[in-house]
Amino acid sequence: MSNDATTPVPDSPFRPEPGDRDLAPQFVLPLVVRIERAAPPPRTDALETAARAVLVMLGDERSTGDGAWARAMRDWQDARIRKVVRRARGAEWRRAEALPGITVTGKTAEVRVFPPVPLDGWPKDLARLQVSGTDLDDPEPPADADRSAPVLWMNPDLDMSAGKAMAQAGHGAQLAWWELDDAARTAWREAGYPLAVRTPGPDHWRTLTTSGLPVVRDAGYTEIAPGSCTVVADHPALR
């Protein structure tokens, strides 16, 4: 599922309205979630693992400076910030693992994130993977979030597929990362990027969206209306 969102800076790469970033070559950050038929991961675990995968890619030494992925990461971040989540199992997953990227593991979920690629330049072993079919459930309601760690709050009024929600959670994690100073980023990275993804009640959601925390607004390419608030990124350092 692919997505876009909003930050308060001019010509944000996440805002739904067209801007100068739309004139730049467009790239996408591919994420692949492992969904074996007999043992799919719980939905919340998949969302949290996808968000951490985005942070791992952003914080990897290959993504900055003269790193092997740095040019692709700069090109991606200079245009729209797009993420697409596809699913794989069995031999598909093994082929995906053979491509340059990083596999991030949650409690049971596995998500592999790859350096950005042009919208029309996907590696064939990723391009053939399905976008649909990432509907996942939680066998039990997730425990209350630890508010001393970052929480990505999902809009309780939106019905999103797991793939769409995974991409949105990744947006939220990225917005929080951009807002943090170097010391806070280093502390988060050294701790292993702890975070939770939760859905608040309606009253809490309304409070969150007016709190000044980073808010993701979808560009409306798939599933939901343009400009919809999807995630609030609640990092302790930003409160």
UniProtKB/TrEMBL annotation:
Keywords: Hydrolase. GO terms for molecular function: hydrolase activity. It is an enzyme of class 3 (hydrolase). Residues 1-23 are annotated as: Disordered. It holds the Pfam family PTH2. Gene3D superfamilies: Bit1. InterPro entries: Pep_tRNA_hydro_II_dom_sf, PTH2. It catalyses: an N-acyl-L-alpha-aminoacyl-tRNA + H2O = an N-acyl-L-amino acid + a tRNA + H(+). Its EC number is 3.1.1.29. This is peptidyl-tRNA hydrolase. It comes from Streptomyces plicatus.
